Amino acid sequence: AVFKCVVHEVKTKVVPELNDDFVKELELENVNTVEEYQAYVKNLLKEQKVQAAEQQFENDCIAAVLKNSYAEFPQSLINQGVEREIQRVAAQAKQYGLETEMLLQYFGFENMDDFKKKSEENVKTEFLRELVFEEIIKLEGITCTPEELEAKYLEIAGGDQSKVKQVKKQYSEAQVSFHINSFKVVDLIKSNAVTK
Fold this sequence. Notes:
Strand content: under 5%
Structural class: mainly alpha
Mean pLDDT: 93
Number of strands: 0
Shape: extended
Number of helices: 8
Low-confidence stretches: none
Largest sheet: none
């Protein structure tokens, strides 16, 4: 078989040359030369690796604490948590103009049942984490100061003092205190971790 085609246009990707002029166009603070750019990228990659390692260490520490903890939760409570996850994904799918099943497949789930099963595991883990953290907060006498509370409200409000009142209506003092104290619990767990 012989096929004829007409080529209307041929495009090639043009990659700019890495030189001082190109680096200046990037408008990075204190980065004006190729050498400074290479050092900048090297430091950026190093910081990302350090952050990833710190996050993994934190996750491993929390997982170790949860592994040695146990609690039973009512199935109705777990089902509510799973339903919230389903609604969250459905809203996200709608936002993208996709069917929920299609978005789930994009996220690596075979189907809705697969998603529900994984969500149930995540909900149980999150409930256990909250319960364990609450107990650690109580046993260790962890508290937050009024200044920490106000600073967190301001942070949630995006630094806009005029929105703090609205944020306080949305998030109770107990919720925000627990959030602050949870970070203190994580720091406590990490500081007491024994690495092998």
